[in-house]
Amino acid sequence: MAVDRVDREVPVLIVGAGPAGLATSNLLSRYGVRHVLVEKHLGTAHTPRAHIVNQRTVEIFRHMGIEERLLAVATPREQMANNVWHTSLAGRELARIWAWGTGPDRSADYRAASPSPMANAPQTRLEPVLLDAAREHREADLRFGHELVSYTQDVDGVSALVRERATGDTYRLRCAYLVGADGARSQVVEQAGLPIEGESGLGGAVNVWFEADLTEYLAYRPGVLYWHAAPGTPFLTGAGTLICHKPWTEFVMVIAYDPATETVPHTEKFAVARIRQIVGDDTINPKIKGFATWTINHQVAARYQDRRVFAMGDAVHRHPPTNGAGLNTSIADAFNLAWKLALVIHGQAGAGLLDTYTQERQPVGRLVVDRAMRSATEMAEVHLALGFSPGQSEEEGRAALRGLDQPGPAGEARRAQVRAALELMNYQFNAHGFELGYRYREGAVVSDGTPEPVPARDPELYYHPTTWPGASLPHAWLDRDRRQVSTLDLVSGTHFSLLTGLGGEGWAEAAAAATHATGVAIDVHNIGTQDGPVDAYGDWAALREVGSSGAILVRPDRHIAWRADEYTPRAAQALTEVLREVLSVPGTRPTASVASADSVARPAPA
Fold first, then answer.
1. Regarding beta strands 93-98 and 146-153, do their DSSP bridges make them parallel or antiparallel, or are they unpaired?
2. What is the rounded CA–CA span in Å between residue 595 and residue 600?
3. For the chain: N or C, fewer Cβ within 10 A?
4. Rounded Cα–Cα distance for residues 572 and 130 (Å)
C-alpha cells in the first residue's frame, strides 16, 4: 500500500455517483465550480432500482440542458398510463386505474403545470445520461473505484482520506465543502453524526431483473406497475409485483418477504418459476439479468449538514418506493444545494446561505418519508376490498372473488368498496400536488407580508401554482424570438431572475443597482412589453398574482425568493436589501414595508 499523498485541493468533494451525486456534479460544472467525485463502484447502477421521474425532476434535467437525452431513453408518459391488479397477466384482471396524470380527468392538469412530461427511466438508463453529461465538463474530476475512508473538518475546510480500491493506495483531498450522496448506508452521515429519526428494517424485498416478451399481455393496457393479487398468495403483494422498464420486454419483479422468517432464493430456477406464476404462462423463458435485496425503512435525518459537510438523497431520507419519490427528492436536494455552494464559493453569498439547505430540504424529506410510508400501508385497502385477508386459504380467496361478480345489493356493495379503495390509490399514483407543490416556508426567502394561499382542492392530489415566496415558479408558455419558451426557461445558471411587466420597466435599473451592491447577476424579463417575452395566451397574467408593474424575484433553483405588487421609487433599495437577506450577506434586514417595495401586496388567490 502506498503512503498517503496529498492529491489536490478542490472547492467541493462529492461522495457517491447515484442520481443525487451525479446531478450535483452536473450542476456545479454548469455553475463553474471545480470538484472531485469519488464512487467506490466501477460504474453506475447495475440494477434498475428507482424509475419514476416526475415533472419537477425532468424540469431540472431541462435546466441542466439534458432533458432531451433523458426522454430519449425513458418510457414516454402515454405508456405509463395504467396500474393493473390481476390474478395473473394471462388470467383475470381485477382492477385498473389511470396513473401518473394520464387519465382524462387529470391530463390537462399535468400539461398545464410544466413544460416537461413525466417519464419512466430506471437508474440503469438515467444514471448514464447524467454521467455522460458530467464527463463533458472540465470542472468535474470523476473517480470511479475510489472510496472515502474518513474525513476531518476545520474552520477552513475538509480533509478527506480516499482509497483507490484496485491498488489499496490512499491519498488526501482538501476541499472547502464535502457532499455525501453515498446512499442509505452513508458513511458521511455516520461520521458527521447526523441523527436519523424513524424505524428501519420494517420489511424486506428482492428485485429480480429479467427480460421476456410480454407484449400480448401488456400492450393493450400499457403501464409501469402490475400488481399480483391471487388467492392463496401473500396478502399484500401476491407472488410479486411487475415493474415494466422497457415496453414490453424488460422488467423487475419485486418479491416482498419477512427477513425474520423467510428467505428468497437468488436462483434462476426460483425466479423463472415465480415469473411464470405471475404471468400465468408456463411456456415463457425469461432471461434473468440480476437480483438485488433491499429493506423497507421509514427514516429521515433531523438535519442534513454538519458545518462544511452536507448529505443528500437516500443518505438522509429512506422510505418505501411508493409514490416514486426517492429519486426525485434526491435530485431536488442537489438542485437546492448546488447553486448555494456555487455562490458561496464564488464569494457572492455568505456562508449563512448554506444553512438554508437543511431549513428548506429537511421538511420536504420528512413529508416524502411519511407520505411514502402511508401509501405503502394504504395498498392493503385494495386487497381487502377484493376480499383477500392475511392467512386466507386459496379456496377462501376464490370465494371472495366470486362475490365481486354477484348481482344485487351485496355485489354492488363489494364493487363500490373496490372503487373506493382505488380512489385512495390516487394519493400514490396521481399525487400531483405532493410531487410539485412543496414550498419552502423558511430559508432563503423573504416574505411579502401575504398569508400562504389556501388550496381550493386537495393539496396532495392537485398542484396549486402560486408565486408566494418559497413556492416554485409557475410554468406558463411565452413567445420569445419566434419560439415558445416556458417561464422556467427564463432562469439560467446562478443568475437570479426578475419577472415584471408593463409599467415595470424601472425594475431593470433597480436590478442593476442590486447587482452592483451584491455582485450577483439578475436577469430582468419584462413580460408583455414591446421588447420582452409575449404572454400570448394570457396564462402568465393569470398566474403572477402581482400587478403588471410588480416583480417576482426567482432564485437559480426556480423557487420564488420574494415578490412586490407594484413598482415604486424605492424599488432599488427594496430589491438590494432583499437580495442581501437571501444571500446572507451584510446589510440591513428588510422590513415588511421595504420587502413589499412600499406597496400592499395582494393576497395570493387559492
1. unpaired
2. 10
3. N
4. 40
Residue 80 predicted with pLDDT over 60: yes
Q: Is the dihedral of CA 217, 219, 222, 225 positive or negative?
A: positive
How long is the chain?
606
Q: What is the DSSP letter of 464?
A: -
* For the chain, the helix, strand and coil percentages under 3-state DSSP, each to the nearest 5: 35, 25, 40
Place of cell 470511479: 144
Q: What is the pLDDT of residue 236?
A: 87
The Cα–Cα gap between 257 and 270 comes to 15
Looking up cell 412530461, which residue turns up? 117
The residues, ordered by sequence, that sit 6+ positions from 398 with a Cβ below 8 Å of its Cβ are 231
CB 300 within 8 A of CB 330: no
What are the backbone angles phi and psi of residue 358, rounded to the nearest 5°? -65, -40
- Cβ–Cβ < 8 Å for 341, 69: no
Query: Does 2 have pLDDT greater than 90?
Result: no
* Statement: residue 156 has pLDDT above 50: yes
What three-state secondary structure class fits 209?
A: strand
Placement of cell 448506508 in the chain: 185
Element (H, E) at 497: strand 496-500
Tell me what pLDDT residue 587 has: 62
Q: Which three cell numbers stand for residue 288?
A: 434473468
Query: Mean pLDDT, the chain, as a whole number?
Result: 95
The predicted pLDDT at position 4 comes to: 60
- DSSP three-state, residue 167: coil
The cell for 236 is: 399484500
**H or E segment to which residue 22 belongs:** helix 19-30
Q: Which residue matches cell numbers 393569470?
A: 542
**Rounded Cα distance, 590 and 578, in Å:** 6
> Where do we find the cell 416583480?
551
- Cα 591 to Cα 202: distance, rounded to the nearest angstrom: 48
Helix/strand/coil for 79: helix
In angstroms, what CA-CA distances link 469 with 15, 448, 506?
32, 7, 22
State how far the Cα of 103 lies from the Cα of 372, in Å rounded to an integer: 22
Handedness of CA 125, 460, 446, 313 (dihedral sign): negative
Extended beta strands in 92-236, E state: 93-98, 119-120, 140-144, 146-153, 158-164, 170-180, 196-211, 223-228
Return the CA Rg of the chain: 26
Whether the link from the prior residue into 248 is cis, omega within 30° of 0, is: yes
Cα–Cα distance between 572 and 584 in angstroms, integer? 18
502 HSE (CA, 13 A, CB side): 7
